[in-house]
Amino acid sequence: MKSKRIKTFTATSVGLLFIAVFSSIGMGAVIITPLQIAGIFCKAMGVTTNIAFTESQEAVMMAIRLPRVLLAILVGAALSVSGAAMQGLFRNPLADPSLIGISSGASLAAVASIVLGLNSITTLTGIWGSYTLSIITFAGAFLTAIVVYRLSQSGGKTIIATMLLAGIAINALAAAGTGVFTYAANDAQLRSITFWMLGSLGAATWNNVLGILPFTLLPVIILPTMAKALNAFALGEANAAHLGTNTERVKKTVVLLTALSVGATVAVAGVISFIGLVVPHIIRLLLGPDNRYLLLIAPLLGAFLLVSADVLARTVFIPAELPIGIITSLIGAPVFLYIVIKELNDQKNI
Amino acid sequence: MLQVQSIKYKIAPTLSLSNISFDVMAGEMVAILGANGAGKSTLLKIITGSLKADSGNIFINKKQLSEWSKNELAANCAVLLQQNPLQLSFTVAEVVTMGRYPHFKNHASLNDERIVLEVLQKTGIIHLKDRNYVTLSGGEQQRVHIARVLAQISDQATEHPRYLFMDEPSNNLDIRHQHVALLLAKSFAKESNCVVAVLHDLNLALQYADKIILLKDGMLKGFGLPEDIMTDDAISDVYGLPLQIFNHPSCRHRIVMPAMNTFN
């Protein structure tokens, strides 16, 4: 019965993702029909069809919309799977990389490096530019992840209040740090900084897509292999060890891979909040907290949600574009509040 | 067989476990007794590998504890801890299935599922099978974990004994379920396995333990058969309270009572 529900849910996620992808490529100032999308795609693959489309449609799809939708898929998948894994590690559904400060850490590192000229993004263009920035944001994310984890653990238990408070403190610190750098920044740098603060997929290029591909695929592939261990982690670290889990390895892998994907996504899309909270939450509501399903389905649903959010971001105020981080926060913040209230009620019942 | 040889461990500047040695044979259930802060839980953590002793040796089935791989150890030794901080909404059946984790790679086999159902039945929580763990009462949660550790070591008989370590198994349980829990542990031991349990309730120890480990301030006050170790003087001294042991009027075992007058 349950496995049937899981199959239905997976199939639905895949279907929704396809619909969202076609809508995202097709909608905008230049309309491209699904059939034309297929035609252009076939041509790019070297197959000729007799589907009619204009050259501008082809150019818009290949140079602008396709990389953008791929970026949305990679970012959505990586953030969702990392969010789910983080929540497994912290044994709590509120541990979202953006809430506990990991994204801010990454974005502060990015802003600092832009203003201080630490990286050679200006000279290193192309894929090496994205790699360099990814590594800098990874360092920022990794450091904050370790600090928050250390602070929130006490005697094998996660102190949720400490975890969230540490997140608030780190977010505030990152905001202050960013503020300092804003003073020192010139006009061009200011525009980039705003981009990192709000989150946007507007900078999508093929270079960016290829730049984050390895760092986002790695978590999506490796994290699901830790599913059983993360389930055992829910019983506390000591119990997980008695169930045969190599707890040190699990902790290191999850923190490293999460930092990797958060770092890479912040490097190309800025801080996109709450996606890592909302997606696992929806799956847990429908299928339960078992990480063996959660970590496999989270990337699918995450990709769907982010592609959809991006369609909204591009089309609500045409021709202006809303930063996607605003949309994910609009959806995510109420879900966050809901989880907090539910947790409180659960604790009262015990 | 579990062999513990001259364990030393510094717990706090003024408290150390020192020179602790005992053996647990196949088929035996051994109780660790002592006052609060005597080092019982620490000793259990050392013999289950969570803490490393400063010196001394531990052999499980004649093999040094440190030479067991994590998974091999988990497949043969289950540990019931006092703290089980589970906050995610797993069902009872899912939590108990976690006990089978050392035995399967990704998905539970039919045999694993059979064992899970069996222990759910034995512990009397089969009716809670699909309930959300988080919404259970403290006692029901404790029974879920007892079922989980039993599932971990319930398997076709192997030549070597398997091990069950329990820290305060009777926590949160009503009197009937305290006895259900200890009867299950006892019958597990009887299948030529070993059980070591930290107990607070001396009457439970008198009724179920084959041997007693008596700790006082980190020192081994006595190890042996209950009739030799559990004397009025020894336990009164260990707990700092006048205690007296009687024969049960209608059953074979002995019972313990405080021997003092309260305000009247």
Overview of the structural elements:
The complex is a heterodimer of chains A (350) and B (264). Chain A contains 14 helices and two strands, in the order H-H-H-H-H-E-E-H-H-H-H-H-H-H-H-H. Chain A has 350 residues and is mainly alpha-helical. Chain A has a two-stranded antiparallel ribbon. Chain A is globular and about 65 Å long. Chain A starts with a helix and ends with a helix. The mean pLDDT of chain A is 85. By secondary structure, chain B is an alpha/beta fold. In chain B, 33% of the residues lie in helices and 27% in strands. Chain B has nine helices and twelve strands. A six-stranded mixed β-sheet of chain B has the order 6-7-8-3-9-10, sandwiched between helices. In chain B, strands 2-1-4-5 form a four-stranded antiparallel β-sheet, with helices on one face. Chain B has a two-stranded antiparallel ribbon with strand order 11-12. Chain B is globular and about 55 Å long. The relative contact order of chain B is 0.17. The mean pLDDT of chain B is 91. The A-B interface holds A 91-93, 155-158, 228, 231-232, 234-236, 238-239, 241-246, 284, 288-290, 292, 343, 346, 349-350 and B 48, 50, 70-71, 73-75, 77-79, 81, 83-91, 94-95, 98-99, 101-102, 106-107, 134-135, 137-138, 152.
